[in-house]
Amino acid sequence: xxxxxxxxxxxxxxxxxxxxxxxxxxxxxxxxxxxxxxxxxxxxxxxxxxxxxxxxxxxxxxxxxxxxxxxxxxxxxxxxxxxxxxxxxxxxxxxxxxxxxxxxxxxxxxxxxxxxxxxxxxxxxxxxxxxxxxxxxxxxxxxxxx
Length: 146
Description:
The chain has helices at residues 3-23, 27-37, 45-57, 59-66, 79-94, 100-114, 119-134, 136-145. It is mostly helical.
C-alpha cells in the first residue's frame, strides 16, 4: 500500500461523494467521469472504487453512526464536511487495517483543503467521538502503550 496513492484515492473519492450527494448521479457514472478526466496514475484506483461504491450503499448505517454526535440535523451540515464524515466513518467501520489516527488525520487534511475555514475543528470533534465508539479497543491499546 502506497500512502500517497491511498491519499489521492481519498481526495478523489471525496470529490466524487460530494458530486453524488449534490447531484444524485450514480456511482458508476461518477467513477467513469473521474477515471476518464481526473484520476492520476499515482492513485490507488481499487481503493477509490471501493469508497465511491461502498459509501452510498452504506450511507444509512454511516449516518446512524454520525448523527448521535451532531448538534444539528445532517441536512444542515456543510456538504463537503458531510462527505468527509461519511468517508472517515466508513473507514473507521470497515477498514480496521487503517489505524484510527490515520483515518482522522486524513479526514482533517481533506477538511482543511476543501472544507470551511473552521470546519476541521467540527470534523475532528465528531470523528473523535465516533472513533471512541467504533474503535474503543484500539484506542485503549494505544493508551496502555503510553
